[in-house]
């Protein structure tokens, strides 16, 4: 089971996001299909999810219900050359 944004896009490590309007990044994704000793505890305890970092407000937050969280928005994938924000539901997300 992969974790997704409300738009259906898969959440990936390193994604640039906005959470409650604040910029951040996806620190890691914990799911059963990834055998990673650093994230296995999150899979066992919560069934998996995504750790996001929003340094200006929240620090790090673990989300286990990502696809229903309208406050978690994908802005750009890690390593995108253009640096332009991704479009969601027809409008640009401001950085």
Description:
The protein is mainly beta. The chain has one domain: SH3 type barrels (Roll), CATH 2.30.30. 7% of the residues lie in helices and 35% in strands. It has a five-stranded antiparallel beta sheet. Strands 6-7 form a two-stranded antiparallel ribbon. The longest helix is centred in the middle third of the chain and has 7 residues, at 40-46. It is globular, with a radius of gyration of 13 Å. Mean pLDDT is 83; it is low at 81-95.
SS-derived structural category: mainly beta
User: How many structural domains are formed by the residues?
Assistant: 1
Q: What is CATH's topology name?
A: SH3 type barrels
Given this structure, which CATH class is correct?
Answer: Mainly Beta
Order of SSEs: EEHEEEEE
General form: globular
Distance between the termini: 29 Å
Task: Specify Rg, calculated over alpha carbons.
Answer: 13 Å
**CATH-scheme architecture:** Roll
